[in-house]
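Re: the request from the purification team.
They wanted to know what the chain is likely to look like in 3D before they choose a buffer screen. I agreed to run a prediction and write the result into the notebook, where they can find it.
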Amino acid sequence: MNILKTLQSIENNELLKTFKELYGTDEAQLEYQRQRYLNAVNNFAKLYPKRKNIRIFSAPGRTEIGGNHTDHQNGCVLAAAVNLDVIAVAAFHQDGVIRIKSEGYEPFTVKLSDISTQSGKTGTAAIVCGIAAKFMDMGVEIGGFDLYCTSDVLCGSGISSSAAFETLICTIIDSYYNDNKAGAVEIAKIGQFAENVYFGKKSGLMDQTVSSVGGLVSIDFYDTENPEVESFNCDFEEYGYCLCITDTKSSHADLTDDYAAIRSEMEGVAAHFGKPQLRFVSEVAFYDAIPKLRETCSDRAIIRAAHFFEENSRAKFEAQALKEGNIEYFLELVRKSGHSSATLLQNQYSCSDPENQAITLAIMTSRKLLGDKGAVRVHGGGFAGTIQAFVPVELAERYIAEMDRIFGENSCRKLRIRPVGGVQITKEEL
């Protein structure tokens, strides 16, 4: 679609139905998105004045709902795409380069003739190289594109901005150069490949899968090459609850060792049984072997392994409860998940910095506010960052205000489940 026509369609609310699906029906939110899209198109036009025809794409962030630190052990998770996203305006060409300008960051260029791991690219550019390389290995001929993107998925917010960006780039390439043949799960794998091999972060597949698939997503990673993925819809507000995420503004810096220790300790326990991950270990055998395990594994490793077995089962029960509309049982399971993360997994604060316990403080405050209503738990990797709460609708404004009072303005966000993953917003190009 040419730029002028795109601007007119946004101005005339021709994208209103799409916006309601992606962002909800709140009038202020819809107007914000309309202006956001107009600004994105205008910024693109200033950056790339020679490009006349454009397409617009979107990919969502995600929230982990069940399965805290289970995915890296080939376990089960329950997660959801949310109405915070990264959007991009793209123009395609045959120049053999990908040019990207993200709002708030310096622009960069990737030459498609130089996208190996030896290209010297780092950071986001390395991820783009990895995605392009994987598609080209699949036989997809990529000509190139110019891109302007802007994100509401804040870095460090626990909503996975990196997976949203990876899904966005994959969706762009798959849509234009591959006739949407890859499919949502394959797009997730391509994003993970780029992050693992080119960026150097050994992430699991949960974040990319949820961002790509959309909706509430139940995933079984027993076979990581062919994970079982089921997407379904659920509106928590129909049950009288709001999904709230609070960013405690605590830093993730220097927590790499804390995150790595969880995985290595769990896998150390699995190794006792000759298995690579805990998913392939019998829970009965694990408990029987605790005296022997203590000879080679730390007590903390054993306790964290126990969390895995509990949490892995719980993620499956949570999904089933939501599919059946049993919100009270679901909330009970969320509370148990939070308790297990605190007492068994032990990822609410870092042992290396015990004086800083923003996550524990946020959970304590939440429980005091909620009483016996709703549920609260650590969100994502833990040790710093965010908590998740299911808050009765009638308490939502009070809850958000109190979280903002303690952790700073706009710390707490009320989110909605987004029913679709990575998607092209504009449908044709003239």
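For the purification team: The chain has two domains: 3-233+418-424, 236-415.
Please add any questions underneath this entry.
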